[in-house]
Specification:
Pfam families: GerE
Organism: Leucobacter viscericola
Largest sheet: 6 strands, antiparallel
Shape: elongated
Distance between the termini: 30 Å
GO biological process, one term: regulation of DNA-templated transcription
Number of domains: 2
CATH topology of the largest domain: Beta-Lactamase
GO molecular function: DNA binding
Keywords: DNA-binding, Transcription, Transcription regulation
Order of helices and strands: HEEEHEHEEHHHHHHH
Helix content: 40-55%
CATH class of the largest domain: Alpha Beta
């Protein structure tokens, strides 16, 4: 992955670095994504200088490089005097005034994808909960990376345009609708604004592509301008897949009564009297694939 193409990913990294600093209590926190054996620091928090910005840490070199090579957290209470690491990056680390340094690799599906660091400007001993606190942050960050990977995979596989007057195969259309419902579920769990925007763009593309797959190629005048809430769209997306209220509630983590309420509101907005008519109307309005 090229660093300059990761707007959403960088946003997630920034959030992870800030969370890492708060959770561990370190004076300074920083981190970067791994690419071909090198982790490049692109996010800083609590820093006094820019000495660490853009630092490229190779596997096996320095504390972070050792953490990447061993796929486990590494800590040194006296960075300058440590004999357990190489000192290729002393100038950058010591310029920031760091005495104690902690490096944690972010592992996704067995591969190191990033490294988060915490540094202290005093040689104070780390607390007993340090590793657990750091692991909680890196675990959430690893989940975000998985989401980014899945979104990027689906974007890469998505047609860039619809072939006019060509009927989309039923199996393909069904897969597209299932993907849309899955993405709606993922989006509901994501708090990062950049990633949510990326997911929303992918959902819109899915709906746009399917709108050219049959006779429903124009927006119905009666439903034009209708706006459904995110949860109303979630419910209708699963209704489109044939789910019952109970099943949809289990999938979305909502009660059956809540599902009924969202469905009633959506059908009213769309001017329909049944769940299936609401799905059809939402598709005509370009709200669902």
């Amino acid at each position: 992955m090229k660093q300059d193409t990761m707007t959403a990913e960088q946003s997630s990294l920034d959030a992870a670095v800030q969370s890492f600093a708060r959770a561990t209590g370190f004076d300074v926190a920083f981190g970067g994504f791994e690419n071909r054996g090198v982790a490049t620091v692109t996010s800083l928090f609590g820093n006094h200088t820019q000495s660490l910005s853009g630092l490229e840490v190779a596997v096996g070199l320095g504390l972070g490089g050792r953490a990447m090579r061993e796929s486990r957290p590494r800590l040194t209470s006296d960075y300058a005097r440590s004999s357990k690491i190489t000192h290729d990056y002393d100038t950058q680390v010591l310029t920031e005034g760091i005495r104690m340094l902690f490096a944690v690799p972010v592992i996704v599906d067995g591969c190191v994808r990033a490294v988060l660091y915490g540094g202290s400007r005093t040689p104070s001993a780390p607390g007993n909960a340090l590793v657990n606190s750091a692991s909680a942050v890196t675990g959430l960050f690893a989940r975000d990376i998985r989401v980014h990977d899945e979104v990027n995979r689906r974007l890469a596989a998505m047609p860039t345009r619809v072939v006019e007057h060509r009927e989309m195969p039923a199996t393909t259309l069904e897969e597209l609708r299932e993907s849309y419902a899955e993405l709606r579920g993922i989006s509901a769990e994501v708090s990062d604004p950049a990633l949510r925007a990326k997911l929303a763009a992918l959902e819109h593309r899915l709906a746009r592509i399917s709108s050219g797959s049959g006779s429903q190629t124009t927006v119905d005048a009666e439903t034009e301008g209708v706006q459904l809430s995110p949860r109303e769209l979630d419910v209708l997306a699963h209704v489109a897949l044939g789910g019952s209220n109970v099943e949809i509630g289990q999938t979305l983590g909502l009660t059956e009564a809540t599902i009924k309420s969202y469905l009633k509101t959506a059908t009213t907005k769309l001017g329909c009297s049944s769940r299936h008519a609401a799905v059809t109307a939402a598709r005509k309005a370009g709200l669902l694939p």
